[in-house]
Amino acid sequence: MGAAGSPSTTGPDAKRGLRAGVRAARRALDDDERAALDADLAAAALGPGSPLAALTAGSVVALYDATPTEPGTRGLRAALAARGVVVVLPVVVGPDAPLAWRLDVAAADGPGAAGGETHRPEGVDDAAVVLLPALAVDGAGTRLGQGGGHYDRTLALLPPTRPGRPVLAAVVRDPELLPAGSLPREAHDVPVDAALTPSGWHDLR
Protein backbone atom coordinates (compact mmCIF):
# COMPACT_ATOMS: atom_id res chain seq x y z
CA MET A 1 0.00 0.00 0.00
CA GLY A 2 1.31 3.46 -0.90
CA ALA A 3 1.50 6.68 1.01
CA ALA A 4 -2.18 7.42 0.67
CA GLY A 5 -2.99 4.57 3.01
CA SER A 6 -6.13 2.47 3.24
CA PRO A 7 -9.52 4.09 3.82
CA SER A 8 -11.29 3.10 7.03
CA THR A 9 -14.57 4.64 5.85
CA THR A 10 -16.13 5.43 2.52
CA GLY A 11 -17.20 8.60 0.75
CA PRO A 12 -16.21 12.17 1.64
CA ASP A 13 -14.78 11.39 5.10
CA ALA A 14 -12.40 8.80 3.70
CA LYS A 15 -11.34 11.15 0.93
CA ARG A 16 -10.56 13.97 3.37
CA GLY A 17 -8.24 11.75 5.35
CA LEU A 18 -6.50 10.42 2.25
CA ARG A 19 -6.01 13.91 0.84
CA ALA A 20 -4.44 15.14 4.08
CA GLY A 21 -1.94 12.28 4.11
CA VAL A 22 -0.82 12.74 0.50
CA ARG A 23 -0.56 16.51 0.83
CA ALA A 24 1.65 16.17 3.91
CA ALA A 25 3.96 13.71 2.11
CA ARG A 26 4.25 16.01 -0.89
CA ARG A 27 5.01 19.06 1.26
CA ALA A 28 7.90 17.13 2.81
CA LEU A 29 9.75 16.86 -0.52
CA ASP A 30 12.72 19.19 -0.98
CA ASP A 31 13.54 21.21 -4.10
CA ASP A 32 15.95 18.60 -5.49
CA GLU A 33 13.34 15.87 -5.10
CA ARG A 34 10.74 18.01 -6.86
CA ALA A 35 13.10 18.74 -9.77
CA ALA A 36 13.95 15.05 -10.13
CA LEU A 37 10.25 14.17 -10.08
CA ASP A 38 9.55 16.65 -12.89
CA ALA A 39 12.38 15.24 -15.04
CA ASP A 40 11.45 11.62 -14.37
CA LEU A 41 7.79 12.22 -15.25
CA ALA A 42 8.77 13.80 -18.57
CA ALA A 43 10.99 10.84 -19.40
CA ALA A 44 8.35 8.30 -18.38
CA ALA A 45 5.63 10.06 -20.37
CA LEU A 46 7.63 9.68 -23.57
CA GLY A 47 8.98 6.24 -22.76
CA PRO A 48 7.94 2.68 -23.64
CA GLY A 49 4.25 1.88 -23.37
CA SER A 50 3.08 5.48 -23.24
CA PRO A 51 0.67 6.66 -25.95
CA LEU A 52 2.25 10.09 -25.65
CA ALA A 53 5.42 8.78 -27.29
CA ALA A 54 3.54 8.01 -30.51
CA LEU A 55 1.81 11.38 -30.89
CA THR A 56 2.59 13.38 -34.01
CA ALA A 57 2.79 17.14 -34.52
CA GLY A 58 -0.62 18.75 -34.25
CA SER A 59 -1.98 16.20 -31.77
CA VAL A 60 -3.61 17.72 -28.70
CA VAL A 61 -2.78 16.86 -25.08
CA ALA A 62 -4.64 18.37 -22.14
CA LEU A 63 -2.26 18.89 -19.24
CA TYR A 64 -2.03 21.27 -16.26
CA ASP A 65 0.40 23.76 -14.77
CA ALA A 66 1.50 21.96 -11.62
CA THR A 67 1.50 23.75 -8.28
CA PRO A 68 4.69 23.53 -6.18
CA THR A 69 3.35 20.53 -4.26
CA GLU A 70 2.11 18.59 -7.31
CA PRO A 71 4.29 16.31 -9.46
CA GLY A 72 5.92 18.74 -11.87
CA THR A 73 4.72 19.11 -15.44
CA ARG A 74 7.03 21.82 -16.80
CA GLY A 75 9.49 19.34 -18.34
CA LEU A 76 6.72 17.32 -19.96
CA ARG A 77 4.95 20.40 -21.32
CA ALA A 78 8.19 21.59 -22.90
CA ALA A 79 9.00 18.15 -24.33
CA LEU A 80 5.57 17.81 -25.92
CA ALA A 81 5.72 21.32 -27.37
CA ALA A 82 9.15 20.56 -28.85
CA ARG A 83 7.54 17.69 -30.77
CA GLY A 84 4.85 19.96 -32.15
CA VAL A 85 2.14 18.60 -29.85
CA VAL A 86 -0.51 21.17 -28.94
CA VAL A 87 -0.76 21.43 -25.14
CA VAL A 88 -3.87 22.94 -23.56
CA LEU A 89 -4.24 23.92 -19.91
CA PRO A 90 -7.39 24.12 -17.77
CA VAL A 91 -9.15 27.35 -16.88
CA VAL A 92 -11.60 27.46 -13.96
CA VAL A 93 -14.56 29.54 -15.14
CA GLY A 94 -16.93 29.03 -12.21
CA PRO A 95 -17.32 27.05 -8.99
CA ASP A 96 -19.79 24.59 -10.49
CA ALA A 97 -18.79 24.77 -14.16
CA PRO A 98 -16.74 22.42 -16.32
CA LEU A 99 -13.24 23.56 -17.17
CA ALA A 100 -12.41 25.68 -20.19
CA TRP A 101 -9.03 25.26 -21.90
CA ARG A 102 -6.32 27.56 -23.20
CA LEU A 103 -3.21 27.03 -25.30
CA ASP A 104 -0.01 26.52 -23.32
CA VAL A 105 1.98 29.39 -24.76
CA ALA A 106 4.63 29.11 -22.03
CA ALA A 107 5.57 25.56 -23.04
CA ALA A 108 5.90 26.50 -26.69
CA ASP A 109 7.68 29.82 -26.24
CA GLY A 110 9.70 29.41 -23.05
CA PRO A 111 9.26 30.71 -19.51
CA GLY A 112 6.30 32.95 -18.83
CA ALA A 113 2.63 32.85 -18.07
CA ALA A 114 0.51 30.47 -20.10
CA GLY A 115 -2.24 32.05 -22.12
CA GLY A 116 -3.89 31.98 -25.49
CA GLU A 117 -7.14 30.90 -27.03
CA THR A 118 -9.88 29.77 -24.68
CA HIS A 119 -11.83 26.73 -25.82
CA ARG A 120 -15.40 25.75 -25.03
CA PRO A 121 -15.55 23.52 -21.90
CA GLU A 122 -16.27 20.35 -23.86
CA GLY A 123 -13.44 21.18 -26.31
CA VAL A 124 -11.12 18.78 -24.49
CA ASP A 125 -12.71 16.00 -26.54
CA ASP A 126 -10.26 17.07 -29.28
CA ALA A 127 -7.41 15.77 -27.12
CA ALA A 128 -5.71 12.45 -27.72
CA VAL A 129 -4.69 12.23 -24.07
CA VAL A 130 -5.86 14.07 -20.95
CA LEU A 131 -3.33 14.09 -18.11
CA LEU A 132 -5.12 14.87 -14.87
CA PRO A 133 -3.77 16.11 -11.55
CA ALA A 134 -4.45 13.66 -8.75
CA LEU A 135 -3.49 12.97 -5.17
CA ALA A 136 -3.76 9.22 -5.71
CA VAL A 137 -5.20 6.65 -8.11
CA ASP A 138 -5.88 2.95 -7.67
CA GLY A 139 -5.67 -0.04 -9.96
CA ALA A 140 -9.37 0.18 -10.78
CA GLY A 141 -8.91 3.68 -12.20
CA THR A 142 -10.46 5.52 -9.25
CA ARG A 143 -8.82 8.93 -9.02
CA LEU A 144 -8.54 11.03 -5.86
CA GLY A 145 -8.64 14.68 -6.91
CA GLN A 146 -8.41 17.88 -4.91
CA GLY A 147 -12.14 17.90 -4.19
CA GLY A 148 -13.37 20.74 -6.39
CA GLY A 149 -15.12 18.48 -8.89
CA HIS A 150 -14.06 20.52 -11.93
CA TYR A 151 -12.48 17.59 -13.74
CA ASP A 152 -15.35 15.20 -13.04
CA ARG A 153 -17.81 17.72 -14.48
CA THR A 154 -15.57 18.19 -17.52
CA LEU A 155 -14.93 14.51 -18.16
CA ALA A 156 -18.64 13.75 -17.90
CA LEU A 157 -19.06 15.73 -21.16
CA LEU A 158 -16.82 13.34 -23.11
CA PRO A 159 -18.17 10.55 -25.31
CA PRO A 160 -18.70 7.44 -23.15
CA THR A 161 -16.61 5.17 -25.39
CA ARG A 162 -13.94 5.36 -28.06
CA PRO A 163 -13.55 6.44 -30.81
CA GLY A 164 -13.77 10.07 -29.89
CA ARG A 165 -12.87 9.70 -26.24
CA PRO A 166 -9.32 10.62 -25.18
CA VAL A 167 -7.14 8.45 -22.99
CA LEU A 168 -7.47 9.66 -19.39
CA ALA A 169 -4.42 9.34 -17.15
CA ALA A 170 -3.78 10.51 -13.58
CA VAL A 171 -0.33 11.95 -12.81
CA VAL A 172 0.96 10.79 -9.43
CA ARG A 173 4.10 9.74 -7.60
CA ASP A 174 4.75 6.00 -7.43
CA PRO A 175 3.65 5.68 -3.76
CA GLU A 176 0.33 7.26 -4.78
CA LEU A 177 -0.52 4.46 -7.24
CA LEU A 178 -2.52 2.08 -5.04
CA PRO A 179 -4.01 -1.41 -5.45
CA ALA A 180 -7.48 -1.70 -6.96
CA GLY A 181 -10.21 -0.95 -4.45
CA SER A 182 -8.03 1.22 -2.20
CA LEU A 183 -9.92 4.42 -2.96
CA PRO A 184 -13.63 5.10 -2.40
CA ARG A 185 -15.55 5.83 -5.59
CA GLU A 186 -18.65 8.00 -5.57
CA ALA A 187 -21.29 8.21 -8.28
CA HIS A 188 -19.84 11.40 -9.78
CA ASP A 189 -16.26 10.08 -9.95
CA VAL A 190 -15.09 9.48 -13.52
CA PRO A 191 -12.54 6.62 -13.66
CA VAL A 192 -9.28 7.01 -15.56
CA ASP A 193 -7.63 4.61 -17.98
CA ALA A 194 -4.05 4.89 -16.80
CA ALA A 195 -1.58 6.42 -14.39
CA LEU A 196 1.63 8.26 -15.22
CA THR A 197 4.29 7.98 -12.52
CA PRO A 198 8.07 8.56 -12.54
CA SER A 199 8.53 4.82 -13.13
CA GLY A 200 6.41 4.74 -16.29
CA TRP A 201 2.97 4.50 -17.86
CA HIS A 202 0.54 2.12 -16.12
CA ASP A 203 -2.59 0.88 -17.92
CA LEU A 204 -5.42 0.44 -15.41
CA ARG A 205 -8.43 -0.61 -17.49
Give an account of the 3D structure.
With 205 residues, this protein is of the alpha/beta class. It has one domain (12-203): 3-Layer(aba) Sandwich (Rossmann fold). It has helices spanning 12-27, 31-45, 74-82, 105-109, 150-155, and strands at 60-62, 86-91, 100-103, 118-119, 129-133, 136-138, 143-144, 167-171, 177-178, 194-197, 200-203. It has an eight-stranded mixed sheet. Strand 10 (194-197) and strand 11 (200-203) form a beta hairpin. The protein starts with 11 loop residues before the first helix and ends with a strand. Residues 1-9 and 110-114 have low confidence and may be disordered.
Instruction: Report mean pLDDT, rounded to a whole number.
Output: 86
Domain count: the total is: 1
What sequence of helices (H) and strands (E) makes up the elements?
Answer: HHEHEEHEEEEHEEEE
Largest beta sheet: strand ordering: 4-3-2-1-5-8-10-11
The overall strand count is: 11
Broad structural category:
alpha/beta
Question: What is the 3D form?
Answer: globular
Q: What is the name of the CATH topology?
A: Rossmann fold
CATH homology superfamily name: NagB/RpiA/CoA transferase-like
Which CATH-level-2 architecture?
A: 3-Layer(aba) Sandwich
Q: Which value, in Å, is the CA radius of gyration?
A: 16 Å
Largest sheet: 8 strands, mixed
What fraction of the residues are assigned to beta strands by DSSP? Answer: 15-25%
Q: What is the helical fraction, as a range of percent?
A: 10-25%
